[in-house]
Specification:
Length: 128
């Protein structure tokens, strides 16, 4: 199984196991730009199709997957990869929410092999 197929299977797995009370599909377009040391380096634009729903009265999830277009400074055109995200948020109290996200994008290693660049996010949101 290729890396791109693995990402697609992982991103689709929540749809198989989720018995959400409220759920729905969506489209998400997001562009992330990189400026290390104040100099433009690259931009990656995701065009994702996703699904979100409830796991319980206090927990929600989302999963999305689609193409990612990466334009690197100094190169012509862009590379097309596959990217995806899966996230969960939990209302710990009325004023505290905890969330986490796992993301991945396909890439090519220096030796020419396919690889996945992973990212993770964990946070808390306090409301007043």
């Amino acid at each position: 199984m290729s890396i791109k197929s693995t990402i697609a299977a992982l991103a689709a797995s929540p749809f198989v196991f989720a018995g959400a009370a409220f759920a729905g599909p969506y489209v998400n377009v997001e562009s992330n730009l990189s400026y290390p040391d104040g100099e433009y380096n690259n931009a990656t634009t995701d065009l994702h199709v996703g699904y979100e729903g409830s796991l319980s009265d206090s927990a929600d999830f989302y999963a999305q997957i689609g193409p990612a277009f990466t334009a690197v400074d100094g190169t012509d055109g862009s590379e097309t990869e596959i990217s995806g995200k899966f996230g969960v948020s939990v209302a710990a109290t009325d004023s505290l929410g905890i969330y986490g996200e796992l993301s991945g994008i396909t890439d090519e290693a220096s030796n020419g092999d396919d690889e996945i660049d992973w990212g993770a996010k964990l946070g808390a949101k306090f409301t007043f």
